[in-house]
């Protein structure tokens, strides 16, 4: 079985398919309102004045930029100048560049980095540049040592700055898939979830707050013969390229049976729904007294 991570181009197709099926952007753009208005804005809002110094942002693994662009748009109502570094190793970064070209935001500038977080850290050592707002949404799974990388992210924060990390929620049963199927050795959820990040932050005495985002995915297409969406969804959930074609028939059958009848899914109006909720950790770097 080949890891989905070995083929970024195909991974992006599976991710896009997942976004479409889970209605993720609709859910997320609603959720961002809560996260932004209730948790980010009160902490980083300029003090009643239009601050003339730029808000510095860093987006890690921003894919096609849909979510990152929305954040810039929201901040631009409060900051006349925004500087945003956008990091993405995959080719989806070109779509993000296109969004910015098509819909520029007055006062906002971008620098795009077609590279991984680890490559960026070796070029710009942690702490040598500072940002007011950093986001790492659904990206820790792909880092070899996520604990070290979270502390590197923290190093880049300005005093009083905010780091938003989103990972799968610990109550989300789908992250338990690798527990049931140890053969999925490269499954991203095996490494990290909201609870492991919370526990780590506590040991480092870092201030944070968690906000949950409920996401439900209709996985019925996996059980429809010949469904192209179902194939990509199955590959995304197992993190295996061509899972059905390359895993043993016994494993495919056991996996599908678990998806259908296991404790990670439930039925509604004849559809099979998977709870794939996420936890957003909002980390604040305190201003020294
Ligand atoms: C699940 S997607 C999330 C994309 C985006 N943040 C969002 O929420 O829509 C994960 C992204 O992380 C990128 N990625 C994978 N490994 C990375 C790394 N080491 N550093 C930075 N980005 C990485 C992938 O290319 C992919 O675009």
From TrEMBL:
InterPro entries noted in UniProt: SAM-dependent_MTases_sf
Presence of keyword Methyltransferase: yes
GO molecular function, one term: methyltransferase activity
Domain of life of the source: Eukaryota
Pfam families named among the record's database cross-references: Methyltransf_23
Keyword GTP-binding: no
An example Gene Ontology biological process: methylation
Keywords from the UniProt entry: Methyltransferase, Transferase
Descriptive protein name: Putative histamine N-methyltransferase
């Amino acid at each position: 079985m080949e890891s989905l991570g070995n083929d970024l181009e195909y991974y992006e197709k599976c991710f896009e398919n997942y976004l479409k099926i889970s209605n993720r952007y609709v859910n997320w753009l609603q959720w961002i309102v809560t996260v932004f208005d209730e948790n980010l804005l009160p902490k980083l809002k300029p003090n009643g004045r239009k601050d003339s110094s730029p808000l510095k942002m860093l987006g890690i693994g921003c894919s096609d930029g849909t979510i990152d662009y929305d954040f810039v748009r929201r901040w631009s109502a409060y900051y006349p100048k925004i500087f945003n570094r956008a990091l993405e190793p995959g080719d989806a970064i070109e779509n993000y560049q296109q969004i910015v070209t098509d819909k520029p935001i007055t006062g906002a500038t971008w620098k795009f980095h077609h590279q991984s977080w680890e490559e960026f850290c070796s070029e710009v050592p942690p702490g040598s540049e500072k940002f007011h707002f950093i986001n790492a949404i659904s990206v820790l799974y792909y880092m070899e040592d996520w604990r070290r990388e979270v502390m590197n992210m923290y190093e880049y924060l300005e005093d009083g700055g905010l780091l938003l990390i989103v990972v799968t929620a610990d109550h989300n049963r789908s992250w338990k898939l690798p527990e049931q199927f140890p053969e999925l050795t490269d499954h991203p959820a095996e490494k990290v979830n909201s609870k492991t990040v919370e526990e780590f932050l506590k040991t480092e005495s870092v201030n944070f707050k968690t906000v949950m985002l409920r996401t439900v995915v209709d996985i019925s297409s996996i059980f429809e013969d010949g469904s192209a969406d179902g194939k990509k969804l199955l590959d995304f959930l197992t993190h295996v390229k061509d899972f059905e074609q390359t895993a043993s028939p016994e494993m495919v059958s056991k996996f599908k049976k678990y998806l259908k009848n296991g404790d990670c899914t439930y039925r509604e109006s004849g559809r099979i729904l998977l709870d794939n909720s996420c936890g957003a950790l909002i980390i604040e770097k305190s201003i020294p007294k």
